[in-house]
Amino acid sequence: MNILFMGPPGAGKGTQAERIVSEFGIPHISTGDAFRLAKSQATPLGLEAQKYMDQGLLVPDDITIGIVRDRLMQPDCEQGFLLDGFPRTTAQAEALDEIMESMGRKLDHVIDLQVDRNLLLARLTGRRICKSCGATYHVMFNPPQAEGTCDKCGGELYQRADDNEEKVGTRLDEYTNKTAPLLDYYRAKGILRQVDGEQEIDSVTANIHSLLRGNA
Ligand code: AP5
Ligand code: ZN
Residue 130 annotated as binding? Predict the structure, then answer.
C-alpha cells in the first residue's frame, strides 16, 4: 500500500505514521527526518537544508525531490511506503506522479489530518522528541512517565529548533500558501481522505485504520 500523510505542521503526521508503519510493515519516509539526520551529520545536503529549516521555510524543490526519488527506489519500498511531509508544493506533487509512473505504481490513499491553527501552536511548542529512537511526546497531551526521558528506550528528550512560536508561525504560513492547495490536486484524483486530527491520538489512529482497511 502506497500512502501519503498530509496536514499542517503539528497535525500528528509523525505520531500516526509511527503507528501505521508498524502495523502495515512498510517504511516511514519523512523528508523532515531525512533533513534533520543530514543536518546532525553536517553533510553538504544537511548544511544547505538547515539554512531554510532554521527559518521555518521550505527547502527548495530540486533538493527535496532528489531525496525522495532515491529513497523510493530502495528495495524496502517495493511492498509499499508511507510518505510523511512530501509533497509540499505543486512541483513536488507533479514530480511524485512522474516517479510513481516510471515505477509502474500509484498512490492508494492520501490522508489529510485536520487540526485548527490555534491547537497546532500548542502542540508544537509542547512537543518533545527522543534523541535515541525518535519517539514523539507532548508535555501535556502525551507526556512521558518520567519527565525528559523516553518511555520506550530511556533516551533523553529534546525540543526541535523550529518548535518555537516565531518559527511555527512561518511554517504555518508556508503550509497555507504552498501546501494546502495540494488538497484540491488529490481531491480531483479521488484519493483524498480527510480525518479529524483533533481527537485523542488512539481515536485518530482507529479512524485512519478504518480508511486504509476500506471500512469507512
Ligand atoms: P517536518 O519534519 O515534516 O515538520 P512538519 O510538517 O512541520 O510537521 P511536524 O513534524 O512538525 O508535525 P507532525 O504533523 O508530524 O506532528 P507530530 O506527530 O510530531 O518538516 C520540518 C522542516 O523540514 C520544514 O519546515 C521544511 O523546512 C523541511 N521540509 C520537510 N519536508 C519538506 C518538503 N517536502 N519540502 C520542502 N521542505 C521540507 O505531533 C505534534 C505534537 O502534537 C507532538 O508533541 C504530539 O505528541 C502531539 N500530538 C499528536 N497528535 C495528537 C493528538 N491527536 N492529540 C494531542 N496531541 C497530539
Ligand atoms: Zn526513545
Answer: yes
